[in-house]
DNA sequence: AAGTACATCAACCGCACGCAT
DNA sequence: GATGCGTGCGGTTGATGTACT
């Protein structure tokens, strides 16, 4: 039995959104939150498909979305991440604050690809489609250690906000990254990851934000929160930015490409779920790094 | 000014997955 | 385990803008 369409297409508007539609959607979500996309259009008084509403919100209306040109740091990061992960735009977007998968995808296809080719830098060709990759992963039995039940249990726990298990996994992966941990990266790399442009800016941002930051899910202050996980993430970040590990074939830290991708998928999932803290932690680390360095 | 080609990017579409039943 | 629903993802399309003739 095939899937029903996500919504009846009769009488629904398509194409570019008007300012009035944007306002209706924004007002509704501000009041009720991002819940029930299917029923949202009717409740908000919009003649749009729920998927269309979600896309509009996620890509353009949601607060914190950065518009405008990509910086060279962002470009560099996108290229690195593409080399690692291929067209997993949502994962890549999760690593670049304020940018959406759609925007990055468009930018890649219209600008970066041409730019790289003109510079004689052919990007690594990845097997297209994440869904195929997932199938390949299944075939390769990458997650053979995790049976279906265990996997579901793990997901449930994660959803409840319990990141302890992930943390332990990262800890295991940390052993893999340990060898190159000492190769601390240049300030440029850290800046690219943190989104700040100078040490003083980072320090200032740290001062402004870190003192009174609260966890959206638990309400814990940053000080109370477990910073350990972010230190671990940082180690993986180091690995991520290690030029020697840009291409799985050149990276000796993993036994196989699938193993490497598994580590990164888990990592990105974790980062996406906790991106705000990670961002702050990076600022924190960078400030300390700058101080130690002086 | 008009016509055409090309570039850009917002939005759509189909599929797969997680979850509830 | 089977089924259906809601959601998110990645590939693609097409409307619009811009450059060129």
TrEMBL record:
Gene Ontology MF, one: transcription cis-regulatory region binding
InterPro entries assigned: Homeodomain-like_sf, Myb_dom, Myb_TF_plants, SANT/Myb
Protein origin, superkingdom: Eukaryota
Localization per Swiss-Prot or TrEMBL: Nucleus
Ranges of residues in domain Myb-like: 9-61, 62-112
Gene that produces this protein: LOC107782378
Domain HTH myb-type: 9-61, 62-116
Location, primary (coarse class): nucleus
Keyword Repeat carried by entry: yes
GO BP annotations, alphabetical order: cell differentiation; green leaf volatile biosynthetic process; regulation of DNA-templated transcription; response to other organism
Organism in which the protein naturally occurs: Nicotiana tabacum (Common tobacco)
One Pfam family cited in the UniProt record for this chain: Myb_DNA-binding
Region (Disordered): 129-164, 201-223
Amino acid composition bias (Polar residues), ranges on this chain: 209-222
Record key words, sorted: DNA-binding, Nucleus, Repeat, Transcription, Transcription regulation
Protein name: Myb-related protein 308-like
Entry-linked Gene3D superfamilies: Homeodomain-like
GO cellular component: a single term: nucleus
